[in-house]
Amino acid sequence: xxxRITLLVLAAGMGSRYGGLKQVxxxxxxxxxxxxxxxxxxxxxxxxxxxxxxxKSIEADFREIFNRIEKHMEVEYVYQELDAVPSGVQITPERxxxxxxxxxxxxxxxxxxxxxxxxxxxxxxxxxxxxxVANYLKDDKIxxxxxxxxxxxPLRNTLSEFGHVSRGIxxxxxxxxxKAIVERTKIQYADDKNSIIFYDExxxxxxxxxxxxVSMNFWGFxxxxxxxxEHQFDAxxxxxxxxxxxxxxxxxxxxxxxxTNTIRxxxxxSPDEWFxxxxxxxxxxxxxxxxxxxxxxxYPPQLWQ
Length: 305
Fold this sequence. Notes:
Layout: E1 6-10, H1 34-45, E2 49-54, H2 59-66, E3 74-79, H3 101-106, E4 116-120, E5 123-124, H4 127-138, E6 149-154, E7 165-172, E8 178-189, E9 196-199, E10 205-208, E11 213-221, H5 225-240, H6 250-259, E12 266-269, E13 275-276, H7 282-295
Parallel strand pairs: 1-2, 1-4, 2-3, 6-12
Antiparallel strand pairs: 4-11, 5-13, 6-11, 7-8, 7-11, 8-9, 9-10
């Protein structure tokens, strides 16, 4: 398995703000999804396998669309279901949403035995982003158990014109290691579009510069992360099994592992421009940007020929 790396795609979310299954929304000229472009970029960067985290209720849609990838790289599916919890835990029947991104990574533990990257299915990160993370995960000078990284983007490159967003703002030390991620909600442009604000817990506007490094849930991990997540999730689910809203967030898990000096996470910077489809109105912008990248010959008109 030397130098093999895997892409883990988190695609089990419901997409409530977008209003549908945005993971399978067709935004390319021949029906490609954002996920198609992500997997294509990962393949070009040297990833050998892709693992999709989905829910069984959307499996048919996924397999119909993404079976075209199986001719080009190894594909595996794992399922993030509400009952994927340690034995003996009884969850409330009123719960409908998944247990969060940390849980989504944990359910993939049996499908991955190489260093791997984690991405969201509905985020476009750019081709250079995958090469940067792939090079880090394949670096022989870094021991396998220490291959932890996060790809950061400037905040101003991650906003939506059509509503507020939540972003994890990163505190980074002088050696480019992550110190902590602080979740900020309701981040948006000010009315004049010339500045950026977020609203604190008292609904008071606070200003941001725009060049803050934010996490867009693009991570690189050693397989050792699974044991850490299992320990954390066991404690989480036993405390929150009757909750209808509590989520086991991946950034919170990483924060705790950093705080306890269990892992160190290298912060890598992407030169690419991120975009995604948080809101329905974002779709038109995404389609246009993909078309521009095709016109620049960064992608072929049809990806999986």
